[in-house]
Structures are given as C-alpha cells and as structure tokens.
Amino acid sequence: MSPPPPSQSATNPGSGGLPGVRIGHGWDRHRLATPDEGGRALVVGGVRLESPVGPIAHSDGDALYHAVTDALLGAIGADDIGVLFPNDDPRHDAEDSEVFLGEAVRRVREAGYGVVNLDATVRLERPRLSPAKGRIVENLRRVLGCEAVNVKGKTGEGVGPVGEGRAIEADAVVLVSRV
Ligand SMILES: [Zn+2]
Questions:
Q1: What separation in Å is there between the alpha carbon of 17 and the centre of ligand 1?
Q2: Annotated domain spans of the chain
C-alpha cells in the first residue's frame, strides 16, 4: 500500500480519485452568553458586532469563519476544524479564526484546488447582520482569494436557540475546482 496523497485524509478515506470539481459544506454553532457568563466579544466573519452577548468559545468563536473553514476542508476530504485545531490546545485560546480559515485555504491550494464560490448563511437573532455584511464579504473575499462570495443573514423567528438569542449558527457551502 502506498501512502495516501496529501489531499486524502486518514479519517476520510473516501476522498481518493478527486474529480475536477468538489463541493464542501460546513456548519457551526456557538452558545451566546454575557461577559459575566464567559461570553466573548461577538465576531462574525472577522467583524466585531455590538452585542450584550457573545460566543462561548475557546477561539474567538467566529461561527461563520468556522463553518467556511469546515466547508473548505470538507471539499478536499480533509480532517475537520476540531481535529486540526483541538479546542483544548492552549495555542488557540482566543485565537483569531482567520488563522483557521487561512490554513484551510492553504490546504485547498496545496491539494491543487482554488475556491470557485462560497454561499453562507448566518443565523443570529440580533443584532442585524446587514450593516456589517459588506465588510464580512470583503474579509472572506480577501482570505479565500475569490470574488464570488455570498453571505445571508437570517433570524430564528423568535423560536429555537437562535430565535431565543441563546446561539449563533452558520452554514457554508463552497465549490472548489482544480487549478
Ligand atoms: Zn465554532
């Protein structure tokens, strides 16, 4: 048996024989809490939002960056963010999640792929995402090296953990292609 190619994960052995185009999906959720309860400042897509509550997290708790990171890693069949950056690793305490995202982009390129487009949804009851959306999209374009970035903000309609203001969630779907 020859060793697997770099794009093939030991824990995701089904990723051999990669075709020219691959899709990846990521999802993340963080519980929201006041600073007294251990909540951090609320950061979404690298943008700090004014909020009385923020994520409980080992890193900076950027749910959107984490979902995009997992989507990129998933597209190339790599290990997920929790394996690559264990949340008990003191080096990642309060880490800027752009570090994780940048590493995922690096691995995508190393596997011979470039990002074609990203479509993401952030679920957050408040504050509204729209005033920050332009800056969030610019951050993602810069780190991904891709112009086709779409970010949507949704509320939880007052129900469930998002709707009750107890959580932030993000989904991301990416397409990558051979370069
Ligand atoms: Zn996360």
A1: 30
A2: 21-178
What is the pTM (predicted TM-score) of this model?
A: 0.89
- How far apart (Å, rounded) are the C-alpha atoms in residues 9 and 20? 18
In tens, the pLDDT along 20-46 reads: 999 999 999 999 999 999 999 999 999
Q: What is the CA(129)–ligand 1 centre distance, in A? A: 18
The CATH number assigned to the domain with range 21-178 reads: 3.30.1330.50
Distance 43 CA to ligand 1 centre (A): 11
Instruction: Convert the pLDDT of each residue in 135-171 to its tens digit.
Output: 999 999 999 999 999 999 999 999 999 999 999 999 9
3-class SS of residue 10: coil
Q: What is the DSSP string of 18-59?
A: --SEEEEEEEEEEEEE-GGGT---EEETTEEE--S-EE--SS
